[in-house]
Amino acid sequence: MFELYFLFSFMIAGAIIAVTVKDLLSSVIAVGVTGLGVCLTFLVLKAPDLAITQLVVEVLCLIILIRATIRTDLPFATTGRWFFNTFITLAFIILFLGISYIALLDVPAFGYPIMKVARVYLEQGFIRTGAANLVSAVILDYRAYDTLGEATILFTAVMGVLAVIRKKGRKKIGEIEEGQDE
Amino acid sequence: MGVYILCLVLFSVGLYCMLRKRNIIKIIIGLIIAEYAVNLFIVLLGYRMEGRAPIYAANQEILNMVDPLPQALVLTSIVIGLAITALVVGIAMRIYERYGTFDITRINKLKG
């Protein structure tokens, strides 16, 4: 339990630094700290598959964000109504925390989940699917359609990114290709 | 209970960043932080005291396994989060090329 509290404090500190610092590149690096903290927390919570995936995703995310922030300006916007905007935002967040505290009272205590569905998976997963790793048994056998949907979303997002960041439109027939953009 | 509250505090930091900041990159960073917090919360709900990872192995002393279902679904969610981040950053880069700034108050030519 102690290491969970320590890691959470670490992540919250990283997130606050990422939010408050003015330099965009430092902010992106601080988000990387938070992501690696998430990766370690997954390891502590006995989820090694998630930790590996989170590490890969974190590195890719950092590369994408650095590509976006490098060679750009640092806008420093100070407008009027600073106090008003901050007050509204903080009031909304406090309201959110209060409502979620009431909702958390119904959640089972930490460390003692209900596991109504998962009990069947744990008892019969190896016999039915033959996979020693139950997480891969769930994503590739019991809920394979979810994985298919995930692949569809991933494909759509890649198509979207390619369509958005392409610099030139489609060439006409007979025109010479001038080299790739980016 | 205390761990859940800390997770919600992490989510609130991301929410504050999304609602309050004017830089598009800062808004994206808030989105990423909130997404991490939600993923962590779902995995925390499936943790079992003194459990071990849901992988079968011979001659184990601990018999309790943690819940594999939240882990499998969060695995999907993490990858989708990366795709969403890439798409949003692509749009932000296009906005920077068009307007020369990341400040959302100066992006005001959207009509027509």
Summing up helix and strand content along with how strands pair, one would put the structural category of chain B as mainly alpha
Give a short account of the largest sheet of chain B: none
CATH topology of chain B: Helix Hairpins
- Radius of gyration of chain B, in Å, reads 20 Å
**What general form of chain B does the structure show?**
elongated
Mean pLDDT of chain A: 83
H and E order of chain A: HHHHHHH
Sheet bearing the most strands of chain A, described?
none
The Cα radius of gyration of chain A reads 23 Å
The CATH class name of chain B reads Mainly Alpha
Describe this entry's structure for a reader.
The complex is a heterodimer of chains A (182) and B (112). Chain A has 182 residues and is mainly alpha-helical. Chain A has two domains: 1-72, no CATH class; 109-167, no CATH class. Helices cover 71% and strands 0% of the residues of chain A. Chain A is extended. Chain A starts with a helix and ends in a 17-residue tail after the last helix. By secondary structure, chain B is mainly α. Chain B has one domain (2-51, 63-106): Helix Hairpins (Orthogonal Bundle), CATH 1.10.287. Chain B contains three helices and no strands. Chain B has helices at 2-20, 24-45, 68-99. The chains are: A mainly alpha (182), B mainly alpha (112).
